[in-house]
C-alpha cells in the first residue's frame, strides 16, 4: 500500500498536467521515452553509452514526438467523427497507416540523423537505406497497437499510449540505425 500512494499521486499529477498543458506534457513525455529507448537500445546491444543518439531521440521527442501526433489525432477525430462517419475506426486506421505513418517515418529518420550532427547528404543517404525496411516493420508490428489506440484509448491519452509503445519502437529504430552505421564503417 505504501508504494501505491506515490504512484497514484504521480499518475494524478501527470493527468492533471496532460489536461492543463497537453502539448508541453506530451512533448516532455516523448522526450523522456525516446531518450530512454535510445539508452536501452545501446545497453541491450552491450555498447558503451553514446550521447549523440540519446540527445537526438530526446530532442526529436521534445520538438516533434509529442506535438505532431497531438495535432494529428485531433485532425483524425475531426475528419472521421464517431457519430457521423460510417466505419470511423477503419477509416482512421487506413488514414494513419497509409498516409501519416509513411510521412512521419521518413521525417523521423531524417530528423534523427540531422540531430546527431549528420549533414543533409548523409541524412538522406541513411533515410533511403533504412526507410522501406523500417516502414515495413512499422506496418507489421505497430498496426495492432494503433488499432488498440484508436478503438479503446481516449483521445487525450493516445499520444501517451503510443509513446509507451514507442519505447520499444525507439529501441528498434536505434538498433537499425546503429547496424546501418556499423555496416557503413565496416565497408570503409
Automatic annotation (TrEMBL):
Family matches, as PANTHER family: PEROXISOMAL MEMBRANE PROTEIN 2, PEROXISOMAL MEMBRANE PROTEIN 2, PXMP2 MPV17
Subcellular location: Membrane
Transmembrane regions: 159-175
Cellular component terms (Gene Ontology): peroxisomal membrane
Name of the protein: Peroxisomal membrane protein 2
Keyword Transmembrane helix: yes
Stated family: Belongs to the peroxisomal membrane protein PXMP2/4 family.
Amino acid at each position: 500500500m505504501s508504494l501505491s500512494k506515490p504512484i497514484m499521486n504521480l499518475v494524478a499529477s501527470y493527468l492533471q498536467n496532460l489536461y492543463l498543458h497537453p502539448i508541453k506534457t506530451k512533448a516532455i513525455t516523448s522526450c523522456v521515452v525516446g531518450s530512454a529507448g535510445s539508452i536501452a537500445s545501446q545497453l541491450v546491444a552491450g555498447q558503451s553509452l553514446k550521447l549523440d543518439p540519446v540527445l537526438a531521440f530526446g530532442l526529436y521527442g521534445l520538438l516533434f514526438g509529442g506535438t505532431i501526433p497531438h495535432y494529428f489525432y485531433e485532425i483524425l477525430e475531426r475528419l472521421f467523427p464517431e457519430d457521423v462517419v460510417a466505419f470511423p475506426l477503419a477509416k482512421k486506421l487506413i488514414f494513419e497507416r497509409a498516409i501519416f505513418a509513411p510521412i512521419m517515418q521518413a521525417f523521423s529518420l531524417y530528423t534523427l540523423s540531422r540531430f546527431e550532427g549528420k549533414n543533409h547528404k548523409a541524412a538522406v543517404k541513411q533515410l533511403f537505406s533504412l526507410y522501406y525496411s523500417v516502414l515495413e516493420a512499422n506496418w507489421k508490428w505497430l498496426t495492432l497497437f494503433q488499432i488498440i489506440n484508436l478503438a479503446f484509448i481516449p483521445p487525450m491519452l493516445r499520444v501517451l499510449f503510443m509513446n509507451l509503445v514507442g519505447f520499444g519502437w525507439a529501441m528498434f529504430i536505434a538498433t537499425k540505425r546503429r547496424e546501418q552505421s556499423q555496416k557503413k564503417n565496416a565497408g570503409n
